[in-house]
Specification:
Blueprint lengths: L2 H11 L2 H21 L3 H10 L8 H9 L7 H5 L5 H13 L4 H8 L10 H12 L8 H10 L1 H18 L6 H14 L1
Helix pairs in contact: 1-3, 2-3, 2-8, 3-7, 3-8, 4-6, 6-7, 7-8, 8-10, 9-10, 10-11
The structure holds 2'-deoxyguanosine-5'-diphosphate and fe (iii) ion (3 copies).
The site of 2'-deoxyguanosine-5'-diphosphate (DGI) has 17 residues, from helix 10.
Length: 188
């Protein structure tokens, strides 16, 4: 499916704010792909589609996530926010015919990250957090860091998310811990 067709469909599925967030994530995914030598077309599609499941209700989320082929553990079941990545990878195939495994994984793991993340997965993880409509403390610093050192930026973004989840009293998904440890060990 062509980008313009995907956009038209997404506009129907998502609310306006989420649609604009998706365009912003696409924009930054493209910039990061250019900066770090990733396939720009793939980054464009993954960025645009990453939150396709964001506006589903709880039952739909679980149904789609279970059909994604990704193991849905108890933490994901209990923190339903965590289901929209896996559910999104299922919908990306169903609605848009996306079969590229790297794109599907970038969508599936965009909320938690995971050990051995691909370059595209890192790009989508970061682009999601630095897109123009995002506002949190130090977002400017993270934006700058993203273009200097992609892996350090992923760690910074994870630290930020972990603090936020802890403040909310939420469960931490182990994939984020594995990803962060893996990235820090690689640095040294
Ligand atoms: O979908 P977006 O809002 O664009 O962003 P996202 O998919 O990165 O994250 C959505 C939410 O998921 C965000 O509020 C933080 C939360 N989150 C990320 N990692 C974890 C988490 N929530 C829990 N409970 N556990 C996590 O490990
Ligand atoms: Fe998301
Ligand atoms: Fe994210
Ligand atoms: Fe997002």
């Amino acid at each position: 499916m062509k980008i313009e067709q995907i956009k038209d469909k997404l506009k129907e599925i998502l609310d306006e704010k989420r649609y604009l967030h998706s365009l912003g994530t696409m924009e930054y995914a493209v910039k990061l792909a250019e900066r770090f030598g990733e396939d720009v077309q793939k980054a464009m599609i993954a960025g645009l589609v990453h939150d396709v499941a964001k506006c589903l209700d709880k039952q739909q989320l679980l149904n789609c996530a279970l059909k994604s082929g990704i193991v849905i553990d108890n933490i994901m079941r209990s923190q339903i926010e965590l289901l929209h990545g896996p559910a999104g990878s299922y919908l990306a195939r169903q609605l848009f015919g996306i079969e590229d495994v790297d794109i599907l994984n970038a969508i599936a793991y965009h909320t938690t990250g995971r050990e051995n993340m691909s370059k595209l997965e890192k790009i989508i993880y970061v682009a999601d957090l630095i897109e123009p409509s995002r506002q949190f403390e130090h977002v400017d610093r993270l934006r700058e860091k993203s273009f200097e050192d992609l892996e350090k930026a992923v760690v910074m973004a994870m630290d930020n998310t972990l603090k936020y989840v802890i403040e909310c009293g939420g469960l931490i998904h182990p994939n984020t811990i594995y990803a962060r440890n893996w990235l820090i060990l690689r640095e040294s």
